[in-house]
Amino acid sequence: MSRVTPIGILAFALGFGVATTPWPSTAADVASRTFDAPMDRVWTVTESTLKRLGWDIDTYDRAVGWILTDPRAATDSKEFAGSGKGLRHKLRISLKVLGPSRTTVSVERDVYEEKRVLWMIERKPVAPADQAVEAGILDAIQQGL
Length: 145
What we know:
It is a single chain. By secondary structure, the chain is an alpha+beta fold. The chain has a single domain, classed as Alpha-D-Glucose-1,6-Bisphosphate, Chain A, domain 4. Helix content is 26%, strand content 39%. The protein has helices spanning 6-16, 39-52, 132-144; strands at residues 31-35, 57-61, 66-69, 72-73, 78-79, 83-99, 102-117, 120-125. A hairpin with a 3-residue loop joins strand 5 and strand 6 (83-99). The protein is elongated, with a radius of gyration of 18 Å.
């Protein structure tokens, strides 16, 4: 009987592309806007705006000032029982206090092509064509304020 080592598991995962993550975006890809409102108000409006626009929040840290959304389809994707293929994206939103009544919100979008067969997932980063999604979220936050 052979024994599976952690190195063997790692080699298997890397060889089949299991759970690879998209490359982080560069700072030039980040859309941001400064609002004349305190951090608490901007945070509340940002959360409600994301929910209203259909983005589910994956994790957040209010003390640090960031929100990560769950990934969702960016275009029509093909989903079957054991496989799927399509373009997906997720958001990373950062909130930074500039003063008692000024807050900067940055929206960064990771776009990637995902191919899934059973438990094997392959993700390849894709450069977004534009920043329309990011600008739309910042516009919606501004309207909420």
